[in-house]
Amino acid sequence: MNKSCSNCFKKKKCIKEENIIGKNIIQKKSCYKFNIFDWLSNIKSPFEGNKYDFIEVKFKNDRKEFFINKEKIPIEKGNIVTVESKSNIGYDVGIVILTGELVKLQIKNKNINFNKIKNLYRKSTFKEINIWKNLKKKEFSTLLKAKKIAKKFNLFMKICDVEYQGDGDKAIFYYTAENRIDFRKLIKELASHFHTRIEMRQIGYRQETAKIGGIGSCGRELCCSTWLKNFKTVTTNSARYQQLSINIQKLTGQCNKLKCCLNYELDAYLTTIKNFPDFNSKIYTKKGIAQCMKIDVFKQKMWFSYVKNPNNWFRIEVKKIKEILEKNKKNKIAPPLEELTTINSSIQKIEFTFKDFSI
Question: Which domain holds residue 286?
Answer without folding.
Answer: 282-357
